[in-house]
Write a structure and sequence with these properties.
Layout: H1 44-89, H2 96-127, H3 137-140, H4 143-165, H5 171-201, H6 213-227, H7 230-253, H8 262-286, H9 304-307
Helix pairs in contact: 2-4, 2-8, 4-5, 4-7, 4-8, 6-7, 7-8
Length: 308
């Protein structure tokens, strides 16, 4: 050991470094013996990763649900736009086949609805000698079939057709006409019920009420009409009218019904019109291509009157 100047503390000699340049290819090479050992398969790190994955699972599920909802919403919007485009361009609804089917169903249904009302008026006026009130219970009864067919069949049928398949005017006007025909049906049904109730009670001798299948079906039909079960009510109204015609024919003609009296032919024709209406109106209101498209707004889209 050498001493510094003035007897200072001894200074260690400077280390000498190897100044030999490294051999080519040895730079950056790490011996395999110096690498750390691989982690164990069940180490704490793996457990932490599994815990984190389990915690993120609900977030991933919520994200997937959100993506699915967005996808469904986009598909719905695209479908509505396609419906609107087809409706405006006329490529779908206004094809020749569907246009002919639409016109045929609407015209035929309207004619049958009017025919039912005309036939019942002709029957009661020509064969049953008209109408009266409580002074003549027999003629007061004639109000019952006339008003029930008018209310349950004609007015309700036009109301259903207008609301479901009308394309001739704006939707707000369609709703107003729908409400108007329903409003016309209500007093017809009420007065028709009062007429048959009074005519039976004022008859000599009085006739019992609510003993037949027709009367029971009539009560159910009126109850459903009040609850606005549209299609079910209309079909049940048709069935009720048919049972009422059958009951009246049997009581009126008895055994002579088999020899086809002229009046019975009118009653049978009315029954066939009612059956055809039940089939045709149900088909019309369930036919998707006849209705307004889901993408059509109340004032949007071209109307048939604007295309002609």
């Amino acid at each position: 050991m050498e001493e510094g100047e003035g007897g200072a503390n001894p200074v260690a000699p400077m280390a000498e470094f190897d100044k030999t340049p490294p051999e080519e290819g040895s730079q950056g090479t790490i011996p395999l013996d110096d690498l750390p050992p691989p982690p164990l398969p069940h180490s704490a790190g793996t457990t932490a990763i599994s815990i984190n994955e389990s915690q993120s699972a609900p977030d991933s599920a919520a994200s997937n649900e959100s993506k699915q909802e967005k996808k469904k919403r986009k598909e719905k919007e695209a479908k509505e736009k396609q419906y609107q485009s087809d409706y405006d361009s006329g490529e779908d609804d206004m094809s020749c086949g569907r246009w002919c089917e639409y016109v045929l169903v609407v015209v035929l249904a309207s004619l049958l609805l009017l025919s039912a009302l005309i036939l019942v008026l002709f029957w009661t006026l020509y064969y049953r000698k008209g109408y009266a009130w409580q002074e003549s219970p027999e003629h007061q009864f004639n109000l019952h079939p006339t008003l029930m067919v008018a209310g349950f069949i004609s007015f309700s049928g036009f109301s259903m057709l207008l609301y479901r398949i009308s394309r001739c005017c704006r939707q707000i006007y369609v709703k107003l006409f729908h409400m108007l025909f329903h409003a016309l049906a209500i007093p017809c049904i009420v007065i028709g019920f009062i007429a048959v109730w009074d005519s039976k009670n004022l008859s000599v001798p009085p006739i019992k009420n609510f003993y037949s299948m027709h009367s029971w079906m009539g009560l159910i039909t009126m109850g459903l009409f009040a609850l606005q079960f549209v299609v079910t009510t209309f079909m049940l109204a048709v069935a009720t009218c048919l049972t009422g015609l059958t009951q009246k024919a049997i009581l009126q003609f008895g055994k002579d019904y088999a020899i086809w009296p002229e009046e019975s032919i009118i009653m049978n024709a009315l029954a066939m019109v009612l059956v055809a209406l039940g089939i045709l109106v149900s088909y019309a209101v369930r036919r998707d291509s006849f209705g307004r498209r889901p993408g059509q707004s109340q004032d949007g889209g071209k109307l048939i009157s604007e295309r002609l």
